[in-house]
Each structure stands twice: as structure tokens, then as C-alpha cells.
Amino acid sequence: MTFVDRVRSEGGDGACPQRLVLEHVTSRWGNLILIALLDRSYRFSELRRAIGKVSEKMLTQSLQTLERDGLVHRDAKPVIPPRVDYSLTPLGREAAEQVRALAQWVDERMPAVERAREEYDARRA
């Protein structure tokens, strides 16, 4: 059964586990977290600065979700002050490479998208 078949069989209500993971990986912050962690591990505050404009709460929630899915590893070191590093698991690296490829495609195809938008807007005017 394909991904699309599984989603259809669940009635498209979001209960399909594959659909949930896809939502986590492609979410507003999930994709940026994965792409950033491809380069290196980050401490929480470094990652927040690298991503930009994400609240502490949203970053925490997104990291916990990706950690639960097995994509992000949280390494809490028992030192004072506490130090927590985030990195990709092998599964997370795989997902991040796919997300980065999609982001690169968007970047390369943006002129075509902008032309399509202008043509669409002109037709609608």
C-alpha cells in the first residue's frame, strides 16, 4: 500500500502515522531544524539564533516532536550550568537530506514560480 493509499484509507483525518511524520518533517520549524542540524550539532540557543524568529516554546515543541520521531538526538550533559546539544540521528540525517533537496529545488525554481504567480494574478485581474 502506498503512502497516498494509507492516507485515503484513514479518511484523510490525519490519523495515518506516515502523514503525521510528514507533517513533523515539513512543518514550519521542523524543516528548518533538520536543515540546520545537517551542518553540525547545536545548543538550544544557538539553534534558535540559526533558525531565527522562532519562539522558545515552538522550538522546544518542535525539537521534542522530532526527538520522539527518532530524527533528533538530545544530549543533556550533567554539568553546571546545564548543557544540552541537539544533533541528527542517522534517520534524521536521511530525512534532513530529503528536506534540503526540496528546499534547494524551491530556491532554483523560484523564478518560474514567480512568473506563474504573475500570470495567474494577471488572469484573475
TrEMBL record:
Keyword Protein biosynthesis: no
InterPro entries: HTH_HxlR (IPR002577), WH-like_DNA-bd_sf (IPR036388), WH_DNA-bd_sf (IPR036390)
Keywords: DNA-binding, Transcription, Transcription regulation
Domain spans labelled HTH hxlR-type: 16-114
Keyword Coiled coil set for record: no
Record's protein name: Helix-turn-helix transcriptional regulator
Organism: Streptomyces phaeoluteigriseus
Species lineage: Bacteria, Bacillati, Actinomycetota, Actinomycetes, Kitasatosporales
